[in-house]
Amino acid sequence: xxxxSHALLAALKDHGAREIFGIPGDFVLPLFxxxxxxxxxxxxxxxxxxxxxxxxxAAARYHGGxxxxxxxxxxxxxxxVNAVAGAYAERSPVVVIAGAPGxxxxxxxxxxxxxxxxxxxxxxxxKEVTCDQAVLSDPATAxxxxxxVLRSAKELSLPVYxxxxxxxxxxxxxxxxxxxxxxxxxxxxxxxxxxxxARIARAERPVIVVDVEIRxxxxxxxxxxxxxxxxxxxxxxxxGRGLLDNADDVVAGTYLGAAxxxxxxxxxxxxxxxxxxxxxxxxxxxxxxxxxxxxxRMILAASREVQIGHHAYRDMPLxxxxxxxxxxxxxxxxxxxxxxxxxxxxxxxxxxxLPIAPSDIxxxxxxxxxxxxxxxxTSDIGDCLFTAxxxxxxxxxxPGYYAGMGFGVPAGxxxxxxxxxxxxxxxxxxxxxxxxxxxxxxxxxxxPIVVLFNNCSWEMLRVFQPESRFNDLDDWHYxxxxxxxxxxxxxxxxRAELVAALERAVHRRGRFSLVEVMLPRxxxxxxxxxxxxxxxxARERMAK
Length: 544
Ligand SMILES: Cc1ncc(Cc2csc(CCOP(=O)(O)OP(=O)(O)O)c2C)c(N)n1
Ligand SMILES: [Mg+2]
Hints:
Layout: H1 4-14, E1 20-23, H2 29-38, E2 43-45, H3 49-63, E3 67-71, H4 75-89, E4 94-100, H5 103-106, H6 121-126, E5 132-135, H7 142-156, E6 160-165, H8 186-202, E7 206-210, H9 213-216, H10 220-230, E8 234-236, E9 251-254, H11 262-269, E10 273-277, H12 283-286, E11 298-302, E12 305-308, E13 311-313, H13 318-328, H14 358-372, E14 377-379, H15 383-388, E15 396-397, H16 408-416, E16 423-427, H17 428-434, H18 441-444, E17 449-454, H19 459-462, H20 478-484, E18 488-492, H21 495-507, E19 513-518, H22 526-543
Parallel strand pairs: 1-2, 1-3, 3-4, 4-6, 5-6, 7-8, 7-10, 8-9, 10-11, 14-15, 14-16, 16-17, 17-19, 18-19
Antiparallel strand pairs: 11-12, 12-13
């Protein structure tokens, strides 16, 4: 019989994990030894546990499997809670494996180091940010518990928690037998599909809106095929930006309500049927809608449910639904109707001596992608994410709903660890939180390109509260620091310098490149400016 540590690692791999991110500690040292020596999964250690969580989250978003974060008991585990909360909010299946005291320690009578209120406080905290939990303290039940939580992570696309007492690493157990996926009830599925297709047939101006769950459940290509067959226009939400990046004939643009492309906004808000697939009904996706989502003209397929008007079908996996819709849909209007309008993105930045504005960065990146091909992107929260809306529809992992800072750089390291070369967008405030993780790139041979928006400001706060001096950050000269932690940094202040530095970064391989873009305080991207105007007018309307 295998040791529990080996059984768990093999099960993670069987369920779609591709790598492990972590930081060891005495409560997981024996487990980390097995991880490193068994090589069942490659492992990457980082410098601070929030980054471990962000990297595991972003890796899962890109390879479509499970993200894995291994941390020590207490101090390590509590450090990763915020990243796991963000993964929960944005439907990312991260498996948190946290060390814990062994059976004898628990009854030693001592208060244990790293313990908070009680020995089980860690489990109690993670119950709030995971969909399922397992404590592997009994060899007889451990394999079944592992099978259950890993199926939960995959089926619900949500984080799960595995507590691994340090005296269980070598415990002999049965191998983990994966549980069968839970399919939709066939009759309910047929009834649901008939109702959806009937609603589409009656609609005169239907539209499809997609969001992150279509990637989490691997159905992007099938949805593109469905949109083509039905001849329906399709847009992404703010959170869903970058989805269907290989289906330019299908994606008309991104719906941003009052802050977006008016033609896209009209497509959604004038629609008499909005088919929402994998959509998170969040404020960041819909708060700027001129017309709030209306259940009478909406079908929402998300979280294994399909809501039509005011009734719902339960236990309806998105993949089963899309397969059944695609199989039973009859072709409609010509595909030409798909792209009545497609958003256009700025190109052709003049390489001149003018100072740089945030939207110039988007134009320079569009030009770079045209010359060298699109790169997978990660972004932090800040004006960099709003600027990303002006970059052509490219694969993107960003905290567009949870909106937690610190995600961008570690997420980029997570994506780079999957074998891709990402372009990372980050503001100076967020970089101050987790940007230093770039110092781990050299030992793993990772060479992401980082574009750092240095406005020496918490600019997203300043636009709402300009009178506060706490928004004035100091200038830390990040490019200089990059050179001392294994990368190459360049500081640019004109559009010509920006274009040249990006070109050098693309050709520079084997070490990370950091392009520190100097921006004036008070100047935001065009998209953020429209968002702020939209939020302020929405707030004024609510105040009346
Ligand atoms: C973990 C966390 N703590 C605080 C905040 C609150 C916040 C949202 S945006 C922002 C300023 C971001 O500054 P940065 O320089 O990165 O970007 P920019 O605005 O373009 O200049 C803060 C402090 C959030 N969202 N998450
Ligand atoms: Mg800033």
